[in-house]
Amino acid sequence: MAMRKGASSPCLLFLFFFFTLVLLGCPSLGHPNYKDALAKSILFFQGQRSGRLPTGQQMSWRSNSGLSDGSLARVDLTGGYYDAGDNVKFNFPMAFATTMLSWGTLEYGKRMGPQLQNSRAAIRWATDYLIKCATTTPNTLYVGVGDPTADHKCWERPEDMDTVRTVYSVSPRNPGSDVAGETAAALAAASMVFRKVDPKYSRLLLATAKKVMQFAMQYRGAYSDSLGSAVCPFYCSYSGYKDELLWGAAWLWRATNDASYLNFLQSLGANDASDIFSWDNKLAGARVLLSRRALIGNDKRVESFKQQAEDFMCRILPNSPSSSTSYTQGGLMFKLAESNLQYVTSITFLLSTYAKYMTASKHTFNCGSVRVSSTTLRNLAKQQVDYILGENPLKMSYMVGFGANFPKRIHHRGASIPSKASHPEAIGCDSGFQSFFYTSNPNPNILTGAIVGGPNQNDGFPDERTDYSHSEPATYINAAIVGPLAYLAGSYSS
């Protein structure tokens, strides 16, 4: 750092920065062990697996579950992931988590080291299931297994599951452009992950993605309207389906370079401003993805998406005159009271990735009079990751199993009930609530790597199992942080 004339001595500057760090709640000039956090963030997905578990399963307190999924529709829909702390397979958030895992692997795979293979395995566990959902029955896309109302009235581990495993689908008569667009995005993104290591599987993924995207474009409608209480209020498509059509087409264009997808996404007119990115609203993600061509490829056809991506960044940065994002006193981005960390991890991914594109193209932009560089975005992304990993007022790591102080009573059925190995007898719905949900005892099983919903707007966290909005983990929270963790793991030695 260059010193201007009349500046303080290097020693005084060092002391100033040291005490600033202490005041900000940073215990030292070090940083969290990003490589350990990366490994655990991917390991978490093993705890969410449905179906017959492989011999290499490391999360050993889990065992086989959902082995008859799909049988009510006379099809095989085993596999995939439970979305959060329940035992339902909701394809909409599952596909988003798959897209984000794939995007993170595409952008940062070279920094993952030994975790690259584990990330691919986590992606494939989802895509094997999504392929079944898309190819088993003509003109039908299966989009979920398990009655959510019945499931949420029951507190039992997935291995004991005895609630009805209703099968849900969309079709030309009952469309779901949102869930189909997201499924297409997931399959297209994953096809690039496997392009060199498993070309045959990659071709299957891409062919299926094209088919599902055509379905999404041809039969327009929100899956919430088609399925009602099967997905609402759990995973309603609150933002509509236009953002998923944009997202899906953007991924198909990147995977195929077929200009028809560019023409389609330009015709959508999805011009709404956005200051959020989540399993529901994909506008910002699609714009950042498309900006890659504008910044690195100098493709003027997507210049408008680059401008929209930068408008999004200006709505996130705390010192921007157009910022619409709140931050807690401890420095955490705060979007919504329920499961806030899902927005933090997803937006942090966009910050990191747009910064990567900016670095490659030596690009900067302005938010009003504030100049924004790639370093600006990366610093904010690192601050958010560090907060999640324990550099916060409570010195609490919001990743289970990372650090000495982490949530012990997460809202998660499998983690909160003794495993089959330690308690072979079945535990029913009511006894699960009475014996394991309404208790202050720590969970008997550690869902390593799980990131919970996170603290409130005052940086407080009660660590109560009954408080699902703060203590429940989810696949889409974890999937988004894998990329930023891989970047940081490759940038800082532990």
TrEMBL record:
GO terms for biological process: cellulose catabolic process. Keywords: Carbohydrate metabolism, Cellulose degradation, Glycosidase, Hydrolase, Polysaccharide degradation, Signal. The active site is at H411, D463, E472. The keyword Glycoprotein does not apply. Pfam families: Glyco_hydro_9. It comes from the Eukaryota. PROSITE patterns: GH9_2 (PS00592), GH9_3 (PS00698), PROKAR_LIPOPROTEIN (PS51257). Residues 1-30 form the signal peptide. Residues 34-484 form the Glycoside hydrolase family domain. Its EC number is 3.2.1.4. InterPro entries: 6-hairpin_glycosidase_sf, 6hp_glycosidase-like_sf, Glyco_hydro_9, Glyco_hydro_9_Asp/Glu_AS, Glyco_hydro_9_His_AS. PANTHER family: ENDO-1,4-BETA-GLUCANASE. Belongs to the glycosyl hydrolase 9 (cellulase E) family. This is Endoglucanase. It comes from Vitis vinifera (Grape).
